[in-house]
Amino acid sequence: MTRILALMSFAAMVLAGAAASAAERTVTLAVDNMYCEACPYIVKESLARVPGVQTVVVSSQQKSATVTYDDQKTTLDALTSATTQAGYPSRVMP
């Protein structure tokens, strides 16, 4: 009986650790080709459609997009690909 409880405890710790590894991340992308008033809207919508993206704030003055996302549902490559496919190549800012 104690062996079963020990196994169940261990399994619970492993599962909790896996859930804890999922994290909300925030990244700022440098976005090219933003020259008109519609550009920030298009960039924002292209990023918002990526699964796992929670918030997007686009600055046309700084030519950047700050994205908060779930790193278990999407990747940086998916984010930069989304803007590039919309006509706005992007890269992660340091």
Structure description:
The longest helix has 20 residues, at 2-21. 43% of the residues lie in helices and 27% in strands. Strands 2-3-1-4 form a four-stranded antiparallel β-sheet. It has one domain (23-92): Alpha-Beta Plaits, CATH 3.30.70.100. The radius of gyration is 19 Å and the shape is globular. The termini are far apart. The chain has helices at 2-21, 39-48, 76-85; strands spanning 24-31, 53-59, 64-70, 90-92. The chain has 94 residues and is an alpha+beta fold.
Q: What would the CATH topology be?
A: Alpha-Beta Plaits
Q: How would you describe the shape?
A: globular
**How much of the residues is beta strand, in percent?**
25-35%
Structural class: alpha+beta
The end-to-end distance, rounded to whole angstroms, is: 53 Å
The CATH class name reads Alpha Beta
Largest pleated sheet: 4 strands, antiparallel
* Main sheet strand line-up: 2-3-1-4
